[in-house]
Amino acid sequence: MSTTTTRPAPAGSAPAPKGTSPARSINLNSILVEGRALIALILIIAIFAILSDNYLSTGNLTTITKQVAFNAIVALGMLLVILNGGIDLSVGSTVGLTGAVAGNLFRGVHVPFTDSTMFPSVWVIVVISIGIGMLVGLANGLLIAKLNLAPFIVTLGMLYVARGLTEVLLNGQNITNELSGQEGLGNTGFFDVFASRPLGLPISAWVMILFAIAISILLTRTPFGRWLYATGSNERAAQLSGVPVKKVQIRIYVISGLCAGVVGILQVANISSSTADLGTFYELNAIAAVVIGGAALSGGRGTVRGTIIGAFVIGFLANGLVIVGVSPFWQKVITGAVIILAVAVDQIQQIVQRRRLARRATINARAVAETKASAGTPPSSSPPS
């Protein structure tokens, strides 16, 4: 989705060429990075389609889409955090915690000081579970914004807290049979909704599309989007310009927690159980999708379109390696190498662009000096103190 909104250039980026607006320069750079990711995706599909006849089958494409959707939804929340120059390592554990909360609510909630057990309806369970994810995000945001703690340290600590709470809630036991509910308790229909396939697509794919549209509008059509890009590019300058920097930081972590909570619900419906290892490595896959899609880890640059492409690159690559029988150990090596390559190519492009612009600026300065000299005008010098 294109936009004409002028955003500050990312911190450390080269200035735009003369006659080119900063927004146009950033948009062109984003298009170039997204174009590379799209070309990589096409090459991956072509290679594995040649190696395996089942790669592009309807069943396999449906499986890939479902798995990509889980990663993409979490990555969209991660995109907002990275645009701000932060990081959220707790999203994977938040996915697991959300699933554990949902599983325990399906089991029933014991009412204190009584012998009765309360069984919430499906939508109450969904709202409470997603609310837990948002609560984790709120805790991250408050600690980072109000106490000025490093996002890496805060979210790393929250990773352990959320994963530990997940294990406490499950007590080493997977929750399976209780998730379907009972007619007499009014808590049935969970799988009918969240494991359904409207128009042949998994419900997770529709949720991914909905989140992509909503976050794209948020970034390109609202003041919050301009604030986010501004704070990621130069937080101090944004603060002096009147941007509510702290509120922006808190909100993006809440949204990240929301995305993780939704994926937790969708994953529980997908595997028909709540397990202690649910959501493992989701934070790494989300960061990889955002980076492959062209976002800068320093903040201020990234798009929804690029993040979705990055998620599909990881999804199609991982599925293709499984289809052709590559060892699980080598799968991790190859995936990691692709991520490093994507970041390296982007950094090389940035270095080349900065050098080219610096060389152009030097040539222009010499041309101006020669013009003044030929006209008999002495070069400008600083006034005497």
3D structure, described in words:
With about 375 residues, the chain is an all-alpha fold. It has 13 helices and two strands. A two-stranded antiparallel sheet has the order 1-2. Helix 3 packs across helix 10.
Architecture blueprint of SSEs:
Elements: H1 22-51, H2 58-83, H3 91-107, E1 109-110, E2 117-118, H4 122-147, H5 151-170, H6 190-194, H7 203-221, H8 223-233, H9 235-240, H10 245-271, H11 282-292, H12 304-323, H13 328-374
Antiparallel strand pairs: 1-2
Helix pairs in contact: 1-12, 2-7, 2-10, 2-11, 2-12, 3-4, 3-5, 3-10, 4-5, 4-10, 7-8, 11-12
Which structural traits does this protein have?
about 375 residues, mainly alpha, ABC transporter involved in vitamin B12 uptake, BtuC, two-stranded antiparallel sheet, 2 strands
Short description:
The protein is mostly helical. The chain is 69% helix and 1% strand. Strands 1-2 form a two-stranded antiparallel sheet.
Name of the CATH architecture? Orthogonal Bundle
Regions with little confidence, pLDDT below 50 for 5+ residues: 1-25
Task: State the order of secondary-structure elements, H for helix, E for strand.
Answer: HHHEEHHHHHHHHHH
What class do helices, strands and sheet pairing give?
mainly alpha
Structure summary, number of beta strands: 2
How far the N terminus sits from the C terminus, by CA atoms, comes to 52 Å
Average pLDDT = 86
Q: Which strand-content bin applies to the residues?
A: under 5%
The global form is globular
Helix content: 55-70%
CATH fold-level label: ABC transporter involved in vitamin B12 uptake, BtuC
Look at the structure and give the CATH class: Mainly Alpha
